[in-house]
Amino acid sequence: xxxxxxxxxxxxxxxxxxxxxxxxxxxxxxxxxxxxxxxxxxxxxxxxxxxxxxxxxxxxxxxxxxxxxxxxxxxxxxxxxxxxxxxxxxxxxxxxxxxxxxxxxxxxxxxxxxxxxxxxxxxxxxxxxxxxxxxxxxxxxxxxxxxxxxxxxxxxxxxxxxxxxxxxxxxxxxxxxxxxxxxxxxxxxxxxxxxxxxxxxxxxxxxxxxxxxxxxxxxxx
Length: 221
Hints:
The structure is a single chain. The protein is mainly alpha-helical and 221 residues long. It has helices at 13-20, 37-52, 59-66, 70-74, 80-105, 109-126, 128-136, 143-170, 178-190, 192-195, 204-219. The model is unreliable at 1-9 (pLDDT under 50).
C-alpha cells in the first residue's frame, strides 16, 4: 500500500487502482488532482510515457508533470523503470479483475465471452493511455518485473480459456485450439488501445457491443 502524507492512513490497493484506472476512464484533470503524492507521480509518469515513450522520458519530465522536484520522485520510486512496473502491474490487475467479474456474473459461456471480450475492449478504449503503456512498453521492464507481469497475463489468458472450454463442453462453441483462440480474442481487444482516441466516432460503448458480438461469432458452433 502507498502512503505519502505523514499522519494519514495508507491508501488501499483498491483505492490506488481506482485513482489510476477509474471506472469510465480518467478525467482530464491531470495528475495534479490526485491527493496522494505517489499516485500523482504514477499518473504523471503515465502521461509522460504516453506522450514521449518510456526511453525518451526522464525523471525530470515526470517530476515536472507531478509538480515535484526529481528528488521528490525518488522518495517514492527508485527509478522510472519501477514506475513503469507499478503502472503495468496495477493495470494488468485491474483488467484481470474486470474479466474475472464478467465471467463470474454471466449465466452461460456465450454471455461470459461476450461480456469478457466486450468489456476488455471497452476498458482499452476508456483507458487507452494506460493500455498502451502496459501492453506496448513491456519490453522495458527488468527480467524480474517482466516475470511478475507475465504471471498476471497468464491469469487473464486462463479466464478466457476457461470460458472457451466451458462453451466447448456445452456445445455452444466450436474451438479446436482453446489457448490460441483465447490469445487471438484478447489481442483483438488489446489492440483497441493502439488506435482509439477520444472523440472517435466509435464510442467505448459501441466498441464493447461490436467486439463482444464479434468474439461470439468467431467461436460459435
